Queue: 3 jobs
Job 1
Amino acid sequence: MKLLIRNGRVIDPANGVDAVQDVLVQDGLIAQTGRHIERAAREGAEVLDATGKVVCPGLIDIHVHLREPGYEYKETVQTGTRAAAAGGFTAVCCMANTEPVNDTRAVTDYILAKARAEGAVRVYPIGAVTRGLGGKELAELAELAEAGCVAFSDDGKPVMNAELYRRAMEYTLPFGCPVISHAEDTTLSHGACMNEGVVSTALGLKGAPAAAEDTMVARDIQLAELTGAHVHIAHLSSAGAVRLVRDAKSRGVRVTAEATPHHLVLTDEAVRGYDPNTKMNPPLRTRQDVDALVGALADGTIDCVATDHAPHASSEKEGEYDRAAFGVIGLETAVSVLLDRLVRPGVIDLPTLIARMSSAPARLLNLPGGTLAAGAPADITIVDPDRELTIDPSAFRSRSRNTPFGGFEAVGAPVATIVGGRIMWRA
Amino acid sequence: MAWKRKDLLTIRELDPAEITLLIDTAASLREIGTREIKKVPTLRGKTIVNLFYEPSTRTRTSFEIAGKWLSADVVNFSASTSSIGKGETLLDTARNIEAMSPDVVVVRHSSSGAAELLARSLKCGVVNAGDGAHEHPTQALLDLLTIRERKGHLEGLHVAIVGDIAHSRVARSNIYGMRKLGMTVTVAGPPTLIPPHAQELGVKVSHRLEDAIRDVDVIMMLRLQQERMSAGLIPSLREYARYWGLTLDKLHASARSDVLIMHPGPVNRGIELSPEVADGPYSVILEQAANGVAVRMAVLFLLAGAMASQDGQAERGHGL
Amino acid sequence: MIKAQVLDDAALDRALTRISHEILEKNGGAANLAFVGLRTRGVTLAERLADRIAAIDGTKVPVGTLDITLYRDDLGLKEDQPMVRGTDIPFPVKGKTIVLVDDVLFTGRTIRAALDALIDLGRPKMIQLAILIDRGHRELPIRPDYVGKNLPTSRRESVAVRLREHDGEDRVVIEEPEEA
């Protein structure tokens, strides 16, 4: 089985490629890329014309909540991976806060079995750090790693006990997979539903100061330095946290970080209409923070983009702001939002954005993919940089609709998603 | 100047002419309360629903009297008497009430933004009677009316708002209204009770009562909620009363002799206000309550008229 | 667009003098009388009548102001909501003979509202109605006791009473809207 993707602008950051080329896929792997693929090699291939489009390694989202098992009314492996495919992602890493929590091999096995049976893209589970996300005792981390967990995180609930978190870092060192920190000092942020600042004052909503994030990022950096472990900071959102990560990296600490499209594009001004689709944790922050994040994404202080796709039913996101659930979905809007708001104005160039969404996340979690090198899995995303669209939540593949980007107009969108050589989605 | 809005949700969104129209209308309507028969037929056949999720005798009663003096039918829903207590969500309750075709829903809720949420979901008019720590527009209007009556004007006056600014919807609505009408506002309290970035609302911030009340025309004392202590915001009521309670001594030592003392009520006598101040000659607290009914009549009258005129354009003819 | 002049200043003056005499005659003097003017020009006319009666009879008849906005039956039917400017009647109406004063009588709905508003304030002994211009087209069974001038009009015309205190001149004109 062959597939020839013709005449696209191939951007393959892992291999320093940015040129109009053809990509030949055979038996689920990249066979070759180049301007002139021999007739004999491409004989019998299905042809996909990519003229005017961008062909890049399949995008990888390392921070997704698939909600299965336990919260199938919000999302399932099936709907979540279909949303991923429709958003141009060929692989997702799913967080452990399911019901039951992914803190035992049985849950990991279940997720992987579901993904094999119904998944539209590759699924890599992330195991819990502590049993039941309780923050009290370690989950069976070695067995989780063996079952296929690619990282460990109590995402949504920071491990407030610093000693326990230190032990988790030490214990997982031999597995070669990082712990992922939801960095939040909950004693500083309890009861908050947005960023603390002039907007929270005007709206009369309890705010969490950026310091709640910064102090925890500082703690986790110190623990990474102490243990030698790789700590990955999830959804970095504050200028202070950017400074801390930048400084730690310059000292050689094994810390990496991600940022979400919503934190890269929106500020707490978006909360002014009390739309619960602007409520997430960490919260939308200020213009200063957004500028710092974008700068950090451009210079590599922030290693990758991750959506923190967090589906919730409409009943959980339509009521009083302070009572609504935290989180927004992002798989089906990330590419368009970032192309339109960061690449089109020239804040970030396209190859950099692609690197932050493909090769970088693959490298961070040692995942296959993120490259178009011959012999790599044929996970490929095709993007039309000129496609105009209005984001319409009612058309999402996700089971949920909780996006802050509904009605946004954007230029640029994914048009095809190829996983293991199979076209899993086309616009 | 005509009122065009379906809802009264915040002072922040009003322009100065709208605020003045509300106050002027309230001043004209106050006369009804002095009549032997306190009733005019203006809102005959209109239904007003008081939807109160927080206990509030004063504001609810004030809206109820206002509606009744205007001949509207007023229905009270409160947390203890309806399905609100049975886990029904705000939107569920609101949709059920809407099915009964009210003309105006007056809502009090502990969540900031609850009134805007209702206004987005309901076709009828919505009046915010206090949402969380966000706004309490009718309180600000009655405060402004009270000050204007006593001082003859508003522009150029200096008001000190003292106490728990951080959690006060009364403070927010008053700050917005006073700034729009050209008044100067100082907020004062211990730093833990001043909201972050308060200066950006256009106010001065003071951390000493004696400084805050010097040379101001009006001192508005806010109620201190007892739960602020357990939240670690103040050490004790005793200490708060000592440094932030307004006594006759402090008043005489620092304030002007024609200063007005206001309080949205209910007063914690002996904490934020000593009894001699609360009940003394500077206090206009009871006038505030009386003006509350007039302001709420004005709001109901203007909202009902604005809604009817959206329906009634086609019938507009030669008038009377 | 002004179509015709109905009264000039001298004619308006004579009409008010005549009404003053009629009021005195009908009520056997000015004792127990009170004027209630309807905002805005009715109040001015009531004050002029009171001045005239004081000059004729030596009695100062009290004048009150009635705002009928809260009693209108067309709340919201008009494009712009009327301003409430308040009622100010500085005497008890109970037992008084009240002369309601307005500039133009048209459908009668304003007077209907005024009667309701007045009666809500107390129980007058009698209510009479003084009008400067009666232009016809009644929609209610209401008839004035004193009329300055009866003026047949078409419905599309409007009658403008212009008074010195508000408009800088005393005269009454018929206006017709410009054709669109």
Job 2
Amino acid sequence: MSTAEFEQSVVVLEEEFSTPAQRGPVELEARDVSVWFNTRKVLEGVNLQFPKNTVTALIGPSGCGKSTFIRTLNRLHELLPGAALAGEVLYEGEDIYGPTKDPVHIRLNIGMVFQKPNPFPSMTIRGNVLSGLKLSGMKRSNHDEIVEQTLTSAGLWNEVKDRLGHAAGELSGGQQQRLVIARALAVQPHVLLMDEPCSALDPASTLKIEETIRELSKEITIVIVTHNMQQAVRVADYTAFFLAAENEPGHVVEQGRTTEIFGNPQDQRTLDYVNGRFG
Amino acid sequence: MTTTFDPATLPNLQQQKKMHPWRKRTTKFDVSVAIAVAVPMVFVIALFLFSDMPGALVFVIYLPIQMFASGCAAVATKGNRGIVDSVIIVNAVGASIFTFVVILSVLWSLVSNGLKALSIPFLTQNSTYISPSTPLEYGGMAHAALGTLLIVTISALIAVPIGIATAIYITEVRGKAVPYVRFFVQSMSGVPSVVAGLFILTTLILTGAINTSAFAGGLAYAVLMLPTVARTAEEVLRLVPDDLRTGALALGSTRARTVLQVVLPAAKTGIVTAIILGIARVIGETAPLLMTSGKNDATVTNPFSDPISSLPIAIFENVAQPYPDAVSRAWGAALILMVLVAILFTVARLLGRTKVK
């Protein structure tokens, strides 16, 4: 992206999010989240708010705990051996780690798309899209409609509409990734977490997914981990910069509007990172 | 300044033909290989024809001679670095041929001896009123084949669900008792088959709980089949990538649904293999059946009431008789057992084919 284009996108975003009123209520919030794997502390004191119907990008060098953090937001972190956590994650004002909370219910509302496309190999394209409904026990009658609608949102409909009965494994990597996005959308989550969803994709597929993200953010809250800084600028309303010193737990160095983080960062390390001087 | 692709500047492009430059060999290479193949062969054949050495010994010394010859050829064409390659290749090919020969001889002895007994009555009749000296034209093995099928079906109905459930406990539930469960499953696979029969005999048959019957035989077989199914199923479930489990859980799936609708379907072919291996483990076992299902010359269809014959027992009974016809019956029964196994495997493979739905 050239400087002129960058400036232009900054202007567009500033216009879109210039007043605090547009920020809306906070849907998801992390309070003092610290994370351990066995005895190793990998994340320390993360405080982040994710306003309703916005896109927040988590950026930072590899190994700073972004992916670990995003997995704490829908209780997938606890599935890893040796996992421990302190702090709170509030979804609609309630701690998702509360004793009465059911992780299955949480994950139904807070969906996730992973770095590596993981369509279910034993199911067809159509079966994959509908798998969330089946797996979560949701009863819906308008299956055809859901398949078309979610695949259209994920930018895949035109490519697969004539072979919905084929195995999902036949699709290319980029198509598989858009398929799992459609799959995540079919259960109508309120929040969608995306862990580097475009890292394995070509520029054209990436662009399609970014369009999808912008489109979806009108209705749902999105948190996206990305190593691609231009991507953060293109899709995110807010950005949080994570950093971990050597053998230290990672933490959020700076957070705020994407325009501020990229245009006028307060911390020297953020400035260096967003300008590609390290990381 | 960059260069772009322009076919016009490459006039030779039209004349290019498909080649396989990596297949090119020098004459020296061809000659060395030919000598390395021919000399040991001629030497061994000569030994076999003109010396008193027994044939088996000639076969055994062939491998080192061939290895030496190949080593010389390797040095001649590739220098010292070729020696290791040639030794490994000769050994691998030699070992494969040896295995192949062994399997073929077993099959051949089975088919050549068993075919003598095979006839329509042999496949459809039982052995009532048949004594070891009765000619081959009378009586058959249908009752024993039915017995084996009954016993194996019963044991599979018991051992397969328990075995798969055990594997799911180990790989999917990952509960606290996993190390102990694995330890016991592993120990169970070391239980001698005769002990499994003895166990059912003393605990269930002698106490009067059940009769000597197909059901008792199935129980003894199940004890043997369970660890094989559990361990193989565990291995294949472990191969299912964690991405799929996390992916399902991220969609709001419960653990049970994740296992039933994502993990097991993804491992379907492997699970079928586990079942096949379990059946293969038991189908020829004779010792446990001697104590649990016994023998019966008549056809039995009730799996709970009476002693029942099975193919391994029929082989065991007939093969030691001093009458050639009885021995032929044993071979025939063995052939039926083999064919039965082949049919079971084919059917299982067809069912286990990955079909996406």
Job 3
Amino acid sequence: MNAAGTMRRRHSRFPAGLLSKGALVGGWFTLGALLSGCSDPGWQTKDISDLMPPLEFQLTSESGEAVDAQDFRGDATLLFFGFTHCHDVCPATMAHLDSIMGELDEEARDDLQVLFVSVDPARDDPETLRDYTTNFGPEFVGLTGSKDELNALTRRYRVTYGYGEKDSEGHYMVSHPSAIFAFDRSGEAQLLIRQDDEREAVLSDLRRLLASG
Amino acid sequence: MLELERVGAYLLPWEFSPAWVIVCLAAAGCYLRGLKRLRSRGQAPGFWRPLAFLLGVGGVYAVTQTHYDYLSQYMFFTHRAQHLVLHHAAPFLVALAAPLPVLAAGMPSRITNLPGRAVAGRILSPLYRLLQHPAIAPLLFVGLIYFWLIPEVHFDAMLSHQRYQIMNWSMLLDGLLFWWLVLDPRTPDQGGLGYGARVLALLVVIPPQILLGAYLTFSESVLFDVYAVCGRAWPIAPLTDQQLGGLITWIPASMMSVIGVLIVIRYILSDKGDADKGGASKAKAEHERGMPQP
């Protein structure tokens, strides 16, 4: 009975120690504040420099050659995943990017490349990719790869893709990330640009990305 | 053979994380060892409690260290189902199993005699008492669900491996604390929380979960863009994904509270029965309590 009494007293003693223990609650909320992220105020789109590794991949270019990330160092890089049969996200994103890049100086534009990685290699061979990217500016480069190569890249950036059921004509949907990942000239991850980011915000960040290094 | 390989691949972790593997294996190993020892002394806790404990630990392992984890990272409703296991179902089963005596019997003596154990206990016990205060525990239980569903917080948690791990661990630990508090096999006389407070704690967490679940289900816009940003495991309409996730947050999650209340009522009845019969049968009832017989 003594033990039980002590336990009860412990419960009822709580309010007296409330103040000192408030610190613990405070700690909990501080953890929350930390977790909710403290990104570089200079960037207007999502800063991922602490979250994502530098650009690395082994893929096939739209001219059919094996390429890796080293081949694309030196220029700032935007990386986007999609498939050429896409009706909504991909053409919208590509056209949006193309028009934003149209506002950059020609010199700056030369220092920027857009890698369009098709996650639908069954339908997107290098030729199809080439036809697709020529609809946009010369900065757009189509890439694809084997399932393993694509998985290595998507996994690295914690994104994924998947295929829907084929219909009677053999068409199928592909789920893919809508994010654009931005890397600086040395291939360090910098930004994640979302579809609904303001045009001005993206433009300002691209200028800043190009001005650095 | 190919089929077998495919099944094997589903059982392997998507992202191997030693902490989950070690904790799950240690818990199961320690428990089985304790069970064997108690059985040799004729004190084994029957069939249902070990089943509940192992199901709970197995559930935690299954949603974190198999291919299921991939689905929970790339789809909202599967993510909600993962948290339903980590925060509700698995800790509920573990707490219901009242595993402490078995775990203690199975614990290697090297660990029970670790130096500094008393100091650690003294440091941790105020924190434990704070978290288990009947006013704080339900707040924390609901607060954590809401916290990780703040769209910006959710976005970062899904994007960063480290934050994803913190999220899942916090859900499991909080789930264990909460369900242990309300399903504690000790009677109030033995130091367990009063039955009224347990029922109250179980009931107050229902409305906020219903509210959140309904909000997710009936929302006409996509609240969590991270799944579009990072891609979904397969093409599914974003709103359908969110509605399914909302239903999981809403219905099974609040059902768990109802089941919890029924169990507490059973505790009350058996406690009353003990009081009627006197102290002699108390130890026996205490031994049997914790897992309702079917």
